[in-house]
Amino acid sequence: MQRLAVGAVAAAAPLMFPTLVTPGVASAECAPGEWWDPVANRCQPPLVPNCENGWWDPGARTCRPPVSTTPLGCLDGWWWDPIENVCRPPLFGPQAF
After folding, report:
1. How far apart (Å, rounded) are the C-alpha atoms in residues 19 and 10?
2. Which of 12, 37, 85, 87 could lock 44 by a disulfide, CB 3.0 to 4.6 Å apart?
3. 63 with 54: CB under 8 angstroms?
4. H-helix or E-strand containing 56?
C-alpha cells in the first residue's frame, strides 16, 4: 500500500510543479475585453476590436466604415461583395467556369 501511495505522489508531482512555480496571475485581472497572454505574461488588447457601424480590415489592421447597409439582391449563386458593393459570380461549381 505504501508503494502505491509513493507511486501516486511521483506521478502527480510533474502536474503540480507548474502550479507551484508559476506566478498567480490570471485572466480575471485583465480589463474587460482584454485577454491573458501566458507567453508574454501580460494582458493583451482584443485581437479584433469592436468596430461600431463598420467592419474590421485585417490587412490594414483598422476599422473601416460600412460600404452599404443593405446587400444587393444577387441571384443564381452569385454573392454580394460588400467592399465593392456589387454582385460577384460563384467561386465554385459549373457556373464559375
Report:
1. 16
2. 37
3. yes
4. strand 55-57
